[in-house]
Amino acid sequence: MKFIVGRKLGMTRIFDADGRHVAVTKIAALPTIISQVKTKDKDGYKAVQAKAMKNTSGNRTAKISEFKVENPGRYKVGDTVTLKQFKKDDLVTVQGTAKGKGFAGTIKRHGFHRGPETHGSNNVREPGSIGGGYPQRVILGRHMAGHMGTGTVTVKNLRVVDVDDEIIYLAGAVPGPAKSLVKIIGYGEKAEEEVDTAALEEQAAMEKLLEDQAAEKAEKNEAAAEEPTKDSE
Hints:
Shape: extended
CATH topology of the largest domain: Elongation Factor Tu (Ef-tu), domain 3
Structural class: alpha+beta
Number of domains: 3
Strand order of the largest sheet: 1-2-11-10-7-12
C-alpha cells in the first residue's frame, strides 16, 4: 500500500495531450517519516505510524497519522516515505478535514424542508418537534441546528494526473481548505504475495486456447489451398 501526508495548495487545471483541460488539486508532499510499526502480535492489528514534518530539517512535526497496512514488516522506524511510489493514472483515496461552516440550521445542515409561508403558518424554518410524550427527553442523535463542518471526509478513486518529486496533482476536489493537511492512500500496487495467481493462470489458459484455435484455422486454410479444384481435373 502507498501512503503519504501532504498539504493542499489549491486547485488549478492541466491540459492533456489532446488539448482537454482537467481540473486538478495541487498537493505538496511533506517529509513523512515512519515513527512506529504496529504488528498483530504486539498491538492487536497491523499498521504503521507516520510523522509528517513541517520542513526538511525535521525539527517540527506537522501531523502524526496512522495507516493500516497488510505487511508492516517491510517498514522500519526512521524510513522516509516519498512521492516516488505514486505513478500517473493511479487511483488514490484522500482523507482530510472539511471546511468549518459555523452554526447552521436544520435546512442547511441536514436538508430539512421549510414550512408554508402563507395562511397564518409560523413554522417557516422551525425544526419541528424534537421529542414525544415518551421518553420525555430529546433522543440522542436527533437532527438539530448546530456546528456544521470540520468533520473527517474521505474521497475515493481520485486519479493521479501528474506527479513529481514534491507535488502531486489529483483530478477533482479534495476535502479541506487551502494549506490544510490531507492523507493520500493508494491501493493500486499489490505486494508480490498478494498477486491473484488464479487469475493469471486463467488468462494464460485463455491465451493458449486462442493460439491453438489460430493454428488450427491456419492449417485448414493451407489444406484448402493445396486441394485441387474440379475444373483443373
